[in-house]
Amino acid sequence: MNNLDADAIRQNLGETAAARLGSLDVFAEIDSTNSYLLQQPAPGKIRVAATDNQTAGRGRHGRTWQSPAGTGLCLSVAYTFPSPPENLPALTLAIGLGVIEALKELNVTNVQLKWPNDLIAMDDKLGGILTESRGQPDGAVTVVSGIGLNIDLDDRLDDFPGMDEGRRAIDLKSQVADLPDWNRIAAGLVRGIGKAIVDYEAAGFAPFSRQWSEHDWLFGREVTIDTPQGEIKGKAAGIAEDGALLIDTLLGGRQQVTSGSVHVAGIGERGS
Ligand code: BTN
User: Fold this and answer.
1) β strands within 98-244, DSSP E
2) What is the pLDDT of residues 103-127, one digit of tens each?
3) 76 by DSSP, 3-state: which?
4) Whose CA is nearest to atom 2 of ligand 1?
5) SS3 call for 84
6) Are residues 123 and 235 in the same domain?
7) Ligand 1 within 6 A of 128 CB?
8) Is the pTM of this model over 0.90?
9) Are residues 240 and 194 part of one domain?
10) What is the pLDDT of residue 40?
11) Which residue in 103, 138, 144 sits closest to 120, CA to CA?
């Protein structure tokens, strides 16, 4: 069992992240840390909610995110932008890179990103990010970005079949010799995500786009993408400066995709 605790997370934050932080709530059980933060008043600073026991977690495209007690960390961060950010979808990508930095600090260096929101280790799903937003009456926009990170699935991989179109689950415990304290992991995530939000607000996504290629799990893979405009088939070719996914299509030519579900044949997929 873990010992997730707000004071212990704060103690592990470091000065810069601590100064950025407004509130930090840890719950023994909650429906969804994203839903909780979306209901809170617009924070002046970064607001964080975390739990290891989420009963009605949500994923992208209306999917559920399963995280029974003790199996994973569910951590959401809220931040209010004074006006709508220019390219909000790319914030999820920037936050993914912030999570990669946090994991590197824990000596976990083999994690990659599957555009736009999945964390992948050994070709399986280690976690996912869901970003949601709420407009404020004064024109400000509160963005809530929540990560679900599998930490200790305890050989219960088959209990997590529906996490992402059949992609298998993997946990952090299997990727490290000694699993760090959960509060250290949570503090690292707050630091990494907080820095990503602040950097994105200052300079947009372009500076992040160069880092993406180092962690791009999709690059060179044959993909099928379900987009609102229909299905696209081709080979993933990185991302554009604004975070759009680049696809060299089977029909010839390069297409930019800004929203969709990406399927990769073969690797890590269950069944047909
Ligand atoms: C996905 O892979 O589709 C995204 C999953 C995001 C899950 C996290 S857990 C913390 C936060 N609260 C939620 O209800 N969802 C996100």
Assistant:
1) 112-114, 118-121, 124-135, 141-150, 222-227, 230-239
2) 999 999 999 999 999 999 999 999 9
3) strand
4) 128
5) coil
6) no
7) yes
8) yes
9) no
10) 94
11) 103
**How far does residue 58's CA lie from ligand 1's centre (Å)?**
5
Same-domain check for residues 54 and 122: yes
Domain of 148 in residue numbering reads as: 6-213
Q: Is the CB of 58 under 6 A from ligand 1?
A: yes
Distance, CA of 266 to CA of 270 (rounded, Å): 8
Q: What would the pLDDT profile of 224-242 be if each residue is shown by its tens digit?
A: 999 988 999 999 999 999 9
Q: Same domain, yes or no, for 189 and 250?
A: no
- Kind of pairing between the strands at 112-114 and 118-121: antiparallel
3-class secondary structure, 66:
strand
Between CA 93 and CA 7 the distance in angstroms is 29
Return the CATH number at 248.
2.30.30.100
117: CA distance to ligand 1 center in Å?
10
15 plus 120 within the same structural domain: yes
Helix (H) or strand (E) holding 261: strand 261-264
Q: Is the CB of 36 under 6 A from ligand 1?
A: no
User: How high is the pLDDT of residue 161?
Assistant: 45
**Residue 167: predicted pLDDT:** 64
Token readout for 135 is 């407009």
Contact between 74 and 146 (Cβ < 8 Å): yes
Q: Are residues 166 and 95 in the same domain?
A: yes
Is there a cis peptide before residue 84, judged by omega within 30 degrees of 0? Answer: no
Q: For the chain, which residues score pLDDT lower than 50?
A: 161-162, 268-272
What is d(CA 52, CA 143) in angstroms, rounded to the nearest whole number? Answer: 22
**Is 1 inside any structural domain?**
no
